[in-house]
Amino acid sequence: MVTLRTFTEAELAYFDSLPGSAADPYSFYGFPRGSTAVRARWAESRLVSDAGGTLAVDLEGAVVGDVQWHTVPYGPPPMSNAFNTGIRMLPAHQGQGHGTSAQTALAEYLLATYPVNRIEAATDVANRAEQRSLEKAGFTREGVLRGVQWRNGRWNDMVLYSRLRSDALSQTGSIEP
């Protein structure tokens, strides 16, 4: 079973080890990854603020991935803000249900902690594994965003998913903002 938690300072090296090549087709944006900017954010806020954050996906004491979220405004804040989420799992831990558990936990945490009504996530139209994971985590497919992401030297379509507070209430009982 996975848990979400803040990163320790020693674990920031995780960000140096992330795939940054075309071998990772859904995460390659043509620029290097690394922990320099992450270390500055960690020193300032431990990677969590009201506007967004990054948490470690922990499996038996080891970081096997991370989840992130950032604010998306759909009108006057704060009531029209939503959170857009993302996940990254190390290749050795993909396809085992850990990502689904982490995305479920993140959505529940955000809905229980912040006064948002909407959690959203998008994934490449070809990333069927992530689409299944989001659906298992209680997200609803909304549609395709055409040509929305520049990656691997071309424009890519993404599938948009959402999970609303009312969806969470029907799945997990009462959650207060």
Task: Provide a concise account of the structure shown.
This protein has about 180 residues and is of the alpha+beta class.
Q: Explain this structure to me?
A:
The chain has 177 residues and is α+β, with helices and mostly antiparallel strands. The chain has helices at 36-45, 98-113, 128-136, 165-172, and strands at residues 2-5, 48-49, 52-59, 62-73, 81-89, 118-124, 140-151, 154-164. The chain has one domain (2-172): Gcn5-related N-acetyltransferase (GNAT) (Aminopeptidase). The protein contains 4 helices and 8 strands; from the N terminus they run βαββββαβαββα. Strands 1, 2, 3, 4, 5, 6, 7 and 8 form an 8-stranded mixed sheet that branches. A hairpin with a 2-residue loop joins β3 and β4.
What distinguishing features does this structure have?
alpha+beta, 8 strands, eight-stranded mixed sheet, disordered C terminus, 4 helices, Aminopeptidase, about 180 residues
